[in-house]
Amino acid sequence: MVGLKEELLKSIWHAFTALDLDRSGKVLSHNLCTVLNVPHDPVALEEHFRDDDEGPVSNQGYMPYLNKFILEKVQGNFDKVEFNRMCWTLCAKKNLSKSPLLISDEDAFKVWVIFNFLSEDKYPLIIVPEEIEYLLKKITEAMGAGWQQEQFDHYKIALNTSREGLSAWELIDLIGSGQFSKGMDRQTVSMAINEVFNELILDVLKQGYMLKKGHKRKNWMERWFVLKPNVISYYVSEDLKDKKGDIILDGNCCVEALPDKDGKKCLFLIKCLDKTFEISASDKKKKQEWIQAIQSTVSLLRAGSPPPHKEARQKRKELRQKLLAEQEELERQMKELQAANENKQKELETVRKQLEAAAARAAEEEKKRLQTQVELQDRFSLELEREKMVRQKMEEQVAQKSSELEQYLQRVRELEEMYKQLQEALEDEKQARQDEETVRKLQARLLEEETAKRAELEKWHLQQQQTIQMTEAEKQELENQRMMKEQALQVAMQQLKQLELERKEALEQYEEVKKKLETAANNTKSWKDKVAHHEGLIRLIEPGSKNPHLITNWGPAAFTEAELEERQRSWKGKKATSE
């Protein structure tokens, strides 16, 4: 009841401050008793508002009377929208801006009610920048537009420099000016304000069209469902004029998905203590959204928590109070630090004077030290010059030795490169010989296959001649075999042609390998001449002749029989000369 009383007081405050002082209490009290369903006696009402000093209102002011005779008797069985509309009617004409706005009077009324919900609990009522940002974000999201944070930050800075927040009428002017809804038409802005109004004021957590299965006729009818913190109401249409029933929610309710049946899809079930309701959503996404929304509402009922937007508002207020307390504490600490800083400044001034005296003494000592340093520097400069000359001579000697060493290393690298190229030439020659042998074997195999194919071809030809000489009775039976053999003969001829082509390719490969072998032999001979010219001591391993080689105990000999005979004759001649 305390929260309800605070909400009612904000709207009443607007109405009371807008009326003339001489008739404000009586007119307002009569209207409040009517819309709040509070029983009142017209005679007693006149008694309370007598013009002398004996009436309770005159002696104690209007607020004690309002609390005692009206607000304490409110039971909550009244229409909040109708109550707010009555207060709006009393205050709007006097306070609403005369300049044209982009929103209608109905939208301005809803913004005014939202202001009372989000404003601070102190008078005169204002809405702080944080709550303005929250409201503008909600409206922007409802319009499907992007939130302009940078634009609001500039507006917030300008606002903070002049005041703490906005009044209800300034907030209506801000939203009605279209500053934060540029590019949107009046209808889109109106629908967005209505959606935020339903959520924050009417506690509408979700709404939309769905199909509901009847309990008696078992037929399916389309209804407009409205989910609130403790009830789901369903109407004929979204204008909410023809209400068909309520689904009372409590902590014992549950909701579960159902499989498709009877031609209906996206089904789910709401189980209550006395009834069960089958509902069909328009698609799977809507079905899941409704199930999650109802489950969240039931969870809040079980936990005894308020609706999400009210809980969020309370958390924002607590956070602002906490930040305000922290700011006050920070200001207190800053004052203490400032006082301590002044004391430190005095101490630093004393220390500064002491340091100036010490600096004067240090300057005199520094002057003496610099004079001594100059003398030492001159002496060190002479020694450094002598050292540089000695170092330059040593560097020249090192450079000369390095040049000689580099030439020697270059000669060694050239010899190593020549040896490496010689080995590569020998490997190429060896590979060429192996390729030649492979080609020869391939040619021999192809010739053997060609001979076998020719023999087989002749055999098939003889069999064909014998088949022709058979009797007429056997001719019909063997005709098929002859056709098959002719086909085999054609295949054999094709294979023979293919072997012929392969033989030609083998001959071409043989010629190519032969050319490579000759090239490798020429390269080997060229490298032999180069190495012999360069060193005079290296003997190349030349490719031997195709004549049979001699075999020794260690393998094939490195010379032929002719070379052996030539060496024998040379040894005999040398032996005869020596004798």
TrEMBL record:
Subcellular location field: Cell membrane; Cell projection, Lamellipodium; Cytoplasm; Nucleus
Coiled-coil residues: 309-530
Molecular function terms from GO: DNA binding
UniProt cross-references to SMART domains, sorted A to Z: PH
Keyword Membrane attributed: yes
Residue span(s) of domain PH: 203-299
Protein name: Switch-associated protein 70
Organism of derivation: Chaetorhynchus papuensis (pygmy drongo)
Lineage, highest ranks first: Eukaryota, Metazoa, Chordata, Craniata, Vertebrata
